[in-house]
Amino acid sequence: MSKQAKTAISPTREENYPEWYQQVVRAAELAENSDVRGCMVIKPWGYALWENIRTGLDGYFKATGHVNAYFPLFIPLSYLEKEAEHVEGFAKECAVVTHHRLEAGPDGKLVPAGELEEPLVVRPTSETIIGATYAKWVQSYRDLPILINQWANVVRWEMRTRLFLRTTEFLWQEGHTVHETKEEAWEETVKMLNVYKQFAEEYMAMPVLIGEKTAGERFPGAVNTLCIEALMQDCKALQAGTSHFLGQNFAKASGIKFQSREGREETAWTTSWGVSTRLIGGMIMTHGDDDGMIMPPRLAPSHVVVLPIIRNDTDKEKIMQYCNETAVLLRAQSYAGRPVEVVVDDRDINAGEKGWQWVKKGIPLRVEIGPRDMENGGVYVARRDKGAKEKYGQSRAEFVSTIAEVLGDMQKNLFDRACAFRAENTRMIDSWDEFVTFFKEGRGGFALAHWDGTEETEQKINDELSVTIRCIPFDYEQSGSGKCVVSGRPSKGRVVFAKSY
Amino acid sequence: MSKQAKTAISPTREENYPEWYQQVVRAAELAENSDVRGCMVIKPWGYALWENIRTGLDGYFKATGHVNAYFPLFIPLSYLEKEAEHVEGFAKECAVVTHHRLEAGPDGKLVPAGELEEPLVVRPTSETIIGATYAKWVQSYRDLPILINQWANVVRWEMRTRLFLRTTEFLWQEGHTVHETKEEAWEETVKMLNVYKQFAEEYMAMPVLIGEKTAGERFPGAVNTLCIEALMQDCKALQAGTSHFLGQNFAKASGIKFQSREGREETAWTTSWGVSTRLIGGMIMTHGDDDGMIMPPRLAPSHVVVLPIIRNDTDKEKIMQYCNETAVLLRAQSYAGRPVEVVVDDRDINAGEKGWQWVKKGIPLRVEIGPRDMENGGVYVARRDKGAKEKYGQSRAEFVSTIAEVLGDMQKNLFDRACAFRAENTRMIDSWDEFVTFFKEGRGGFALAHWDGTEETEQKINDELSVTIRCIPFDYEQSGSGKCVVSGRPSKGRVVFAKSY
Q1: B425-498 maps to which CATH number?
Q2: Shortest distance, CA A177 to any CA of chain B (angstroms)
């Protein structure tokens, strides 16, 4: 048996994980690099996945009282400068618009012309430009809360990019809310973190830890940053979403003030929260195997591909009719609130190759239909969460009537698998030796260890092992007090360490 | 009666149409100008309208075999230059990114740094950047057609901007397709024009004329530009959507070649087509009245607002319960494929003012519920397409059971009204005197007149009257031959003249 037949993706995860990742993105036709430095082209299969992510999240946002709006792509430089830490955090990675037209230069080639009085930054995030608008909208406590989300593209000039995980331009949503009190703003910050957790687990089948970031890992300008952290199959953590409690920092910078119930002028409290196309990278690295992508059914662009197996022309018409009928029957079913989505792939190419293309794309179910299946009123089914060779025959009627159940079972199976993987690769660690061994000789993973709370210790661990504190769990004191794994100083509870993307 | 009570918008359409437009956009809370030159903030009510437009159009695109994808925001300058007419058309209005970070200048203020080797243009449209990708994707006739659409933001540095109608940044969709043959590409161009027409008429209730643009009005680089043209209430035309037959111009510029069925290398044929947030401007100017916006029910963000009329605290709880029940009953109904969307506005503000806010926002139905209505099991209804004072009582049961019918009737009424307006303001004109009178002394409108087919005549009419040829109807020869209204030279048929946005 040739190597090609055994594995669709080369190299395997074991051989070279980062390269495996790139090859999965390519083979699944999710995205590719464009000729523009660090910017990707999101291909139809990848974009359909993003549309489903958007629809799912948007449902949660609306259910929690948020509405969508749209704010400008450009931020005047002076706005970005209003919050000192914020601009400091983004200054090194800003795309700057300096001119507003092109004209022929001395050699006849076009050059930028019409220099702007004030340069415009392409939004890396929108706190400052949205804040300027909110300052105009908010007069009284009656105008609060403002609960707005924006779906948009943003640009951060990253030096090293990787498809979905870190790109110069990416798609995301950014929620920006304004509140009367500190308590309400904090409640919102936590609420949206929990929305992210729920979405990650219920839609993406990707278990996440939640907690606070350390001071050094906070969003520039935030008082507190909360995050969801997932464990990838190479045992590195992925920060998959963040929710920021901004205190009054940005409200002060933008002048968001209101007349309180007591008639006093007060400064508002704000939050912001976002997830991006990075989530797609997280799904690939959580579920993908050596055969390619595996789509969790709740987000899969299509649930089923029907593959006609045609051996001669006389069968063709009948088989195609049976396949199309099967698609119609399936589409009348629904799973998790949307109709079952079916592709009938009747392209005239090699059947084996065609099947493998769908394996790599990660479609949940492949249904092969040949003359014998047709005669028996049957179908031949392969589940993407099982081995590529594991197929079973079934009557069509039964397959159709149990489709939602099967997809639900796959969704659960993927989540359970990911939870088991995380459990296997999470360790309570109490000595520096063990800590070093875990990350240097072992595969790494989530290390739950005591930390003395100092930046110095955090930095030392990062310098020596490239390991960071992923989060301080909300309930970290419940893990019991102990001694810092580095300094031996007292610690109130365990925090989560890992290497990360 | 105060003036305020008679009209919600000041000035009226009659008094000052452009200013009326701005005031409607403001009062309906659709959008506002941002501090960034020419860029708008699309407010939640306006964005929800755009979301409905997007959903509606996306359905048509998918039904005609298209899929969505996403391409980079930035276009290398050299790509834009590949098509000479194209770059010529957009050079004067390009936002140009020249630097990729900010650093402290001599006086400590941040200045652009990290100059790019090649400037990047923020996409004004994506033919060239998408073409570069397609050139890689297309090898053989088997890879064709490519039928992709993108929902995106684009930037054109316009000198005079107006909310929705002409803004520096706007939201749009752009379809980009590649075909094997000229015939197929032309068929696609026409098909998508008809999709736009159907959407404009069935969703927006805005009748449109269709036809070809003259050479001078074509998209830069296109062989032919088709358009939909609507007539606004000030008798000016609005170009609401365009579909371009690009021939082989862009395929040559980007190198989109394929091996044909006969094994020869051939250059592909491409099309592009787009509509934008400008459609919202078209809806305002087609349906709006002196009381504000009127939302066609098929696109309205919400269909019904329930307004509790509470005169004292003892009634409050009961009335609120009755109102909420009414909302639940309505939401169980559906209209045009989506559930009826209902807002219960229980804000503690003046009831008259509250009602006017919803009139201005253009919500199709306002339902007032006071103690007496409640006791009678009734509701008190106002339709936005009727006068603001025209209200009727009805049993709640009847109102709920006929809601889809009423909304459908409103949708039809708005379309019929707009068609009647267009008919009243469309004139066959056969002499220059009459032509001048129509546009100079009269209100103008669509003039169907003979044209000799020369650019010279077209220019003369534009210079003298600021009137342009909006389109050459596909069937223009059926209107019969005649003599050019300016030169007296022979003409094969009538073309459509108007002043325009």
Answers
A1: 3.30.110.30
A2: 13
